[in-house]
């Protein structure tokens, strides 16, 4: 099976499983799990941020951050393609009672003036704008990478206008693979950062939320309320430590393979548009006369799987469990598909 539906489909390797099985554990709700502590300290050190908390999912880390940074009735600013808005079940409104001001950026990327122009005035008619959220890479933008200069300008607006700035960095390491910045550069300019271990990094589960000691203390309380307090979870944290140690360096291979799929798609007559591939996500649009489900079925007959992400839109994602042999099979299947 060649599963290009998502980078979340990877299975732990034997080495990762060995690390998991030999983990030292304790009850993490009591703060007794040494492996969870080690993971939290490891990521804090990488980013130069005071503290971190291990959570079951990126949805939870994002939703905790939103709740910790806002009060009910506030408004947050994000792009209309943001995962926090599109794919988290309306959690912004449901969990935090916060309304959303949507920006129309370029593949999920907006700039400082977009933020400045959408901050509500201090007037009782309007919700209080209190939070800005950036997603790097942007999932629905087809893995688009933000320029760091652009982010720094947004940081300046947020500082000046007293807004908190959150990073949904589910795939931040994919972005960092394609740019010269380090995690520490990002650590300096955000009030909170969410990182997924279960995407390109290949862990079976887990996300980390980073922030100041005070912020993470608040986050720990919210995680408990959301039902995310976990017990002997060091077994899973060990997978996260293994992922950070071994799987960041290889993300460039996923990007290279994604480019090859892009090159293949570019030559096919039935494709209307491909988002320029920047990382490991390939999002493309089929010509109107083609039926997306037929296309996906034809691929599935060759044991290749992709997903529909919108009208005529298909997404493929390269990851740890896609090797060069599978890439070759995919390229040949695309070149020979009979529509
Ligand atoms: C996957 C993802 C998340 C978190 O998803 P979970 O499935 O809840 O872990 C958050 N943001 C982005 C951009 C993502 O791609």
Strand content: 15-25%
What is the averaged pLDDT score?
Answer: 97
Radius of gyration: 20 Å
Query: Alpha-carbon distance between the termini?
Result: 21 Å
Q: Can you put this structure into words, describing what you see?
A:
The protein has 339 residues and is α/β, with parallel strands linked by helices. The protein has helices spanning 14-21, 34-47, 58-69, 83-86, 91-96, 112-116, 148-160, 172-177, 183-189, 213-225, 234-246, 251-266, 292-301, 324-336; strands at 2-3, 51-55, 75-79, 99-103, 129-135, 164-169, 192-196, 207-211, 271-274, 281-286, 304-305, 307-310, 313-317. The chain has a seven-stranded mixed sheet, with helices on both faces. The protein has a four-stranded antiparallel sheet with strand order 9-10-13-12, covered by helices on one side. Helix 2 (34-47) packs parallel to helix 11 and helix 12 (251-266) runs parallel beside helix 14 (324-336). The chain is globular. Pyridoxal-5'-phosphate binds at residues 57-59, 62, 83, 135, 139, 168, 170, 196, 198-199, 207.
Helix and strand layout, with pairings?
Blueprint: E1 2-3, H1 14-21, H2 34-47, E2 51-55, H3 58-69, E3 75-79, H4 83-86, H5 91-96, E4 99-103, H6 112-116, E5 129-135, H7 148-160, E6 164-169, H8 172-177, H9 183-189, E7 192-196, E8 207-211, H10 213-225, H11 234-246, H12 251-266, E9 271-274, E10 281-286, H13 292-301, E11 304-305, E12 307-310, E13 313-317, H14 324-336
Parallel strand pairs: 1-11, 3-4, 3-5, 5-6, 6-7
Antiparallel strand pairs: 2-8, 7-8, 9-10, 10-13, 12-13
The chain binds pyridoxal-5'-phosphate.
